[in-house]
Amino acid sequence: MPSTLTIAIDGPAGAGKGTLARRLADYYHLPHLDTGLTYRAVAQMLLAKGWPLGDAPHAVEAAQMVDLGRLDKATLSAHAVGEAASKVAVIAEVRKVLVDKQRAFARQPGGAVLDGRDIGTVVCPDAAVKLYVTASAEVRARRRLAEIEAKDGTGDFATILADILRRDERDMGRADSPLKPAADAHLLDTSEMSIEAAFLAARAIVDDAMAKRDAI
Ligand code: C5P
Asked: Is the CB of 118 under 6 A from ligand 1?
């Protein structure tokens, strides 16, 4: 039987897990799903219709309509959509619908890389490798600001830092599937690391986990 490699990557907003997930997916030739985009898609549909973000029945309907093959990163990546996404992400019924879709993606032959907040704990508890990627809130805010400025936008460091801290609180404090490292996750603090250094560290963790698994 061909071996399956599922890599679960979790962490707070701006820790660099998205970049890391894409790099690992490229390197190991695996499909990649940024699960944050699924929550963002639900939030965007509600915003477009003018429905409140806490409107559970409409949010569930929107979640059912999410098509993993049609997630448009360009329109979903706006900072405000991320903030809105964290509000719909507290609705347990929305999570249930999206988690089913994410699990179907993870079950592909050969495996997959998924990144989000609850991948190692809820979506793929049996993943071969789990990474919990963090960085200090100040570093994450600085990176977010640089990202916005790279797209010709402007931002204010203090406002972005406050947004990040609020989002952390919402993601870590919610009752259903709060953001936390899985018991068997490898912690990777990227505060002092370049993207390349973080990628090499993550690769070493994955290779080591695969070697141990293959030795059994
Ligand atoms: O990762 P990203 O910033 O795109 O995620 C947006 C929001 O979606 C997060 O702040 C979080 O509230 C929610 N989310 C989640 N579970 C995931 C991925 C994202 O609750 N697996």
From this structure: yes
Tokens 């960085």, located at residue? 135
Tell which CATH architecture fits domain 5-203: 3-Layer(aba) Sandwich (3.40)
Residue 90 CA, ligand 1 centroid: distance in Å: 10
For residue range 68-104, what is the model confidence (pLDDT) as tens digits? 999 999 999 888 899 999 999 999 999 999 999 999 9
Going from N- to C-terminal start, the domains of the chain cover 5-203
Ligand 1 neighbourhood includes 174 CB (under 6 angstroms): no
Instruction: State the Cα–Cα distance between residues 89 and 105, nearest whole angstrom.
Output: 19
DSSP, res 188: E
Structure token pair of residue 32: 């990649």
For the Cβ of 117 lying below 6 angstroms from any atom of ligand 1, the answer is yes
